[in-house]
């Protein structure tokens, strides 16, 4: 039986365990062919390594998609993440057309901790909003969720009812949604999901540790896409993804590795 194929449209940071460096092994470990389409190549990610060597690959992405169309390639999933231009967003929208009947997953990588990333302009924010409308599933963090709803994005702690309301409104406006890493007033941290077809809200409890690693959002999206491609519901895939991320974070936290190097994914892949 031919493995399913997932087109992963992200940047490639060669050091730091994020983006395609973690997405590809996770997708592959779940028995799915990972087709990588790098939007840019970076020496490291932007968090703590100093000046970064970077090469934009927008033109390469355009020519690659043209080649894929020429040979009649299609995908069971298209998963997009960090994008640096309106041209790249249009290319993702075109790539979504190559996943007819498949999963179109968009991680709207724009912001965190109440503020936009330095590279994100208002044009890119509007572009992500449009891209989310073409998606089947979106995976914003709480800051990005509020930006997508045109609301004050500095709020960081929510009541359970507030979190549920945000997820419902996102789903009404865009698509099925999982809001990652949401802190609630009762002290818990959860993923909040909403499935439009079933009109069902769900909360996935997380075992929170006082540490933050780059790339865990990319890991989560890769797990979510892979588990859903293997037949799990959005809620079940979210649960399984969360438990895997917890294992990775706990193992790395215990090892005491500097956070900028990301989680120790390599010894954890066997748990997928």
Please characterize this protein's 3D structure.
- The chain is α/β, with parallel strands linked by helices and 272 residues long.
- It has a single domain, classed as UDP-N-acetylmuramoyl-L-alanine:D-glutamate ligase.
- The chain is 38% helix and 24% strand.
- A hairpin with a 2-residue loop joins strand 6 and strand 7 (115-116).
- It is globular and about 55 Å long.
Please describe the structure with a list of short key phrases separated by commas or semicolons.
272 residues; UDP-N-acetylmuramoyl-L-alanine:D-glutamate ligase; ten-stranded mixed β-sheet; two-stranded antiparallel ribbon; 38% helix; globular
Please report which band the strand proportion falls in: under 5%, 5-15%, 15-25%, 25-35%, 35-45% or over 45%.
15-25%
Largest sheet: 10 strands, mixed
Low-confidence stretches: none
* Structural classification: alpha/beta
Mean pLDDT: 96
Write down the Rg. Answer: 17 Å
The span between the termini is 21 Å
Helix content: 25-40%
Order of helices and strands: EHEEHEHEEEHEHEHEEEHH
Superfamily (CATH H level) name: Ribokinase
CATH fold-level assignment: UDP-N-acetylmuramoyl-L-alanine:D-glutamate ligase
In one word, what is the shape?
globular
Describe the secondary-structure layout.
Blueprint: E1 5-15, H1 20-29, E2 33-44, E3 54-56, H2 58-70, E4 77-80, H3 86-96, E5 103-106, E6 111-112, E7 115-116, H4 122-133, E8 137-138, H5 142-148, E9 157-158, H6 160-173, E10 176-184, E11 189-195, E12 200-206, H7 216-229, H8 234-255
Parallel strand pairs: 1-2, 1-4, 4-5, 5-8, 8-10, 9-10
Antiparallel strand pairs: 2-3, 6-7, 10-11, 11-12
Helix pairs in contact: 1-7, 2-3, 3-4, 7-8
